[in-house]
Amino acid sequence: MSATLIDGKPISAAVKAKVAAEAARLARDHGLVPGLAVVLVGEDPASTVYVRNKGKATIEAGLRSFEHKLPEHTSEAELLALIARLNADPTVHGILVQLPVPAHIDSQAVIQAISPDKDVDGLHPMNSGRLASGLAALVPCTPLGCLHMLKTVRPQLAGLEAVVVGRSNLVGKPVAQLLLAENCTVTIAHSRTRDLPAVCRRADILVAAVGRPEMLRGDWVKPGAIVIDVGINRVPAGEGKTRLIGDVAFAEAAEIASAITPVPGGVGLMTVACLLANTLKAASMQAGLPAPQ
Ligand code: NDP
Predict the structure, then answer these.
(1) Which residues form the Tetrahydrofolate dehydrogenase/cyclohydrolase catalytic domain (predicted)?
(2) What is the dihedral of CA 110, 112, 113, 115, to 10 degrees?
(3) Lesser CB count within 10 Å: N end or C end of the chain?
């Protein structure tokens, strides 16, 4: 492999350490302990693990963690009532409802019920609109993590061609907005894009957020490009076991790119770190204090 590995471990550890230091300063100087409420409806195994990890990381950073585990049959009205209580609770500065919610609950209604000031997932239309308008916003955590990783290898992104494959509200669109704000020339590709390999080959920065194992091949990568692989795909690994792989054929792409994120151990580690940073930012803003940089 000739590319530099953009290793999520030290980068996410540094973000968490910075949050912990800033949280200690807030507690000391302002008596403020940022609080994050995470709501889980049902018992989806992957979601349960994510929620547990978020709670653990929150406490380790010196923030307050509130976990609300609701049964699968919880009604939309009951969930919205809990969100209303959390919106009004001054000890809660960030609210995250673990998605997906069960099918009988309208996820848009849930997203829009969260106060935009406490929307640490950055999914409320107020926050996506503010991001698109170039205003201060709470930005989704995974895209923030992508940008942070990119900047460890290339601090100045202005003028670069960026191709983002995927256009979800959670990843693709906000990644594209962040890159646009960094003055990249941004293309958003998706399932209807014609000749996707050729589009990808234009990219100085290639972000894959598709959810298809190793779909992006080595010969889709422009020599010297920086590749950020957001995909997390669980695939069979023989003997009844499974393993995680990304949306990029890592071994092939690592021969062509100048830098690349691994899966696992890449973007996935940044998401929780950026969630803590968003909670700190939300708490600071709600207290009328400047948002930490
Ligand atoms: P979505 O399923 O919401 O979006 C996938 C996007 O990929 C869509 O825009 C879709 O296009 C596009 N797409 C699908 N197939 C193709 C194709 N053949 N060619 C081109 N584009 C295609 O997924 P998410 O954005 O939520 O997640 C993407 C990946 O990132 C997943 O693997 C997910 O697990 C992972 N993820 C990782 C996180 C982390 O912490 N690292 C956090 C969140 C997600 P269209 O819109 O046209 O259908």
Answers:
(1) 6-121
(2) 130
(3) C
Tell whether ligand 1 has an atom less than 6 A from the beta carbon of residue 53: no
14 within 8 A of 6, measured Cβ to Cβ: no
Expressed in angstroms and rounded, the spacing between residue 166 Cα and the centre of ligand 1 is 5
Distance CA 71, CA 39 (A): 11
| Cα of 270 vs its chain's centroid, Å | 7
Q: What is the pLDDT of residues 37-74, one digit of tens each?
A: 999 999 999 899 999 999 999 999 999 999 999 999 99
Q: Is the ipTM of this complex over 0.90?
A: yes
Please give the Cα distance from 159 to 204 (Å, whole number). Answer: 10
Beta bridge pairs of residue 40: 69
Report the sign of the C-alpha dihedral through residues 191, 192, 198, 199, in that order. negative
Which ligand 1 atom sits nearest the alpha carbon of residue 268?
41
Token representation of residue 129: 């609109």
183: left (phi over 0), alpha (psi -120 to 50) or beta: left
Residue 232, annotated ligand binder?
yes
230 lines ligand 1 (CB under 6 A): yes
The letter for the amino acid at 134 is G
Is residue 177 lining ligand 1, measured as CB closer than 6 Å? no
Instruction: Specify the pTM.
Output: 0.97
Q: What is the largest CA-CA distance in the chain?
A: 56
Domains and CATH numbers, the chain: 31-115 (3.40.50.10860), 141-269 (3.40.50.720)
